[in-house]
Amino acid sequence: MRALVLAAGAVVFLTAIPASASVQTIGGSYAQSCYFSAENGSTTSTDLDYCNRAFAEGLSPEDLLATYVNRGIVRMLRNDFAAAGADFQAAIGLNPQHSEPWLNMAVLHFKQGDSAGAVVMFDKAITLGTTRPEIAYFGRGLAHEDTGNVRAAYFDLQKAAALKPKWSEPAKELARYQVRRP
After folding, report:
1. 4-174 under CATH 3.40.50.300, yes or no
2. Helix, strand, or coil here: 23?
């Protein structure tokens, strides 16, 4: 099997950060089913079971990383934050230069109220070339706002809106801002 990076579905939580970026695996396996669960934001015990069973399939290194990311997304959406973090950390351990585990770890930190930590991880995901930069900029904007850096928040939200103009969430957030010229 060969892994492909694809965007996750628009599963919304907190203030509308989607469940970030799942990583697709190729084939009709449990790993593929785990990917679809993450992509569609499906969090049943069956979805989690697909992900758990995938690890017994003799996955390639790329598919192993993808399955950790995808199971982490399912776990995060189930509010099992400790297990989700362990999965994202395992994926980072397999390839620290892959952007999607960092993006998902950033979303996890934001969901847990660690906005300062989330900013650092969103930065890393952007630097490494995430396939969903609009999510990274949007999430970093919200995290910047939480930490009091309103100027950086505004510019990140503008960037997210420019990257994906049909996505309404950045525009909704930007509508709360008033820009005053000196």
Report:
1. no
2. strand
Task: Please compute, for residue 77, the number of CA atoms within 13 A of its CA located in the half-sphere on the CB side.
Answer: 28
DSSP code for 106 = H
Dihedral class, residue 56 (left if φ above 0, else alpha if ψ from -120 to 50, else beta): alpha
Ordered by start, the domain boundaries in the chain are 4-174
Is residue 21 a contact partner of residue 98, using CB atoms and an 8 Å limit? no
> Rg of the Cα trace of the chain?
16
Q: What is the pLDDT of residues 105-146, one digit of tens each?
A: 999 999 999 999 999 999 999 999 999 999 999 999 999 999
- How far is the C-alpha of 83 from the C-alpha of 115, rounded, in Å? 20
Q: CB-based burial of residue 65 (10 Å sphere; 0-12 exposed, 13-18 middle, 19+ buried)?
A: buried
Give the integer Cα–Cα distance in Å for 19 and 6: 12
Its pTM stands at 0.85
Q: Is the pLDDT of residue 166 over 70?
A: yes
Q: Is residue 104 within 8 Å of residue 88, measured between CB atoms? A: yes
